[in-house]
Amino acid sequence: MTQPLHALVIAAHPDDAEVWIGGTILRLTAAGKRVGVLDCTRGELATRGDVVTRTRECEAASALLGLAWRGNLERPDAHLVADLELRADLARRICELRPALLFVPHARDLHPDHVAAGRAGREAWQLAGLARWAETQGLAAHRPERLYETMGHTPFEPSCVVDVSEVAERKRAVLEAYASQFSDAAGESDDGHQLARGPLLERIRARDREYGARIGVDFGEPLRHEGPLPAFDPLLP
Ligand SMILES: [Zn+2]
User: Fold this and answer.
1) What is the pLDDT of residue 7?
2) 229 within domain boundaries
3) Which of 7, 45, 87, 132 measures 20 to 30 Å from 218, CA to CA?
4) Overall domain count for the chain
């Protein structure tokens, strides 16, 4: 990897990035930006699908998103912990890929893997910018200019909402690439979670509509930024 990424999305499981900010990714790649996604696990313990199917689906979704890069840390699913090793692994990828924007999961979430990826991702953002730490890894320090948190299960008051109306149908197609997770045939989940029951795809669309309505458009994706965003400095340069 020689050419830096414009944006790197850190996620716990394959399909998290697509669900949470698939529209934002599509808008960036449509604008010619290089976007990468780093998943921490292969989601092998998910109620729906198996790891071979999910990996194949993930490759199809990555192609539809137009990703320049996709990686997986292959940590054990449902056992992700924001330990020193995960933090360093993520920081090394940030230094190697050199994104201007970093997206990490919001660290308040029902799923412990999302919490771990969010915490470690935020810490890695800081760590990656420390010159002497990077030197010990044989890398040049790099801290992305912007750090955004993406919304998983637990709602937050967004700092901004990305208008994804123009790519809403393309986002649907990306999610449909994960047939084991989102198709009607995937059926009812038996893990008893309120957000895992029923037609998942329609729930995701409903959420995008809800946040779109907050900014007066058809579909939107919420993001959180720590502290105020500077004026005259658009989210998607
Ligand atoms: Zn997940």
Assistant:
1) 98
2) no
3) 7
4) 1
Q: Write out the residues surrounding ion ligand 1, Cβ under 5 A.
A: 12-13, 16
Q: How far is the CA of 54 from the centre of ligand 1 (A)?
A: 13
Phi then psi dihedrals of residue 103, to 5 deg: -115, 130
CA of 40 to the centre of ligand 1 (A): 10
- What is the tens place of the pLDDT at every residue in 128-179? 999 999 999 999 999 999 999 999 999 999 999 999 999 999 999 999 999 9
User: Residue 79: inside a domain, yes or no?
Assistant: yes
Helices of type H across 183-222: 200-214
Tokens for 101, please give them.
Answer: 């924007």
Low-confidence ranges of the chain (pLDDT < 50): 189-190, 192-194
The pLDDT of residue 184 is: 64
Q: Which domain holds residue 189?
A: 7-224
Q: Is residue 237 part of a domain?
A: no
- 234 inside domain: no
CA of 15 to the centre of ligand 1 (A): 7
The whole-model pTM stands at 0.92
Find tokens 């810490």 and name the residue. 123
Given this model, what pLDDT does residue 185 score?
Answer: 60
Q: What is residue 183's predicted lDDT score, i.e. its pLDDT?
A: 74
What tokens does 21 get?
A: 């900010």
Q: How far is the CA of 161 from the centre of ligand 1 (A)?
A: 21
CATH number of the structural domain spanning residue 156: 3.40.50.10320
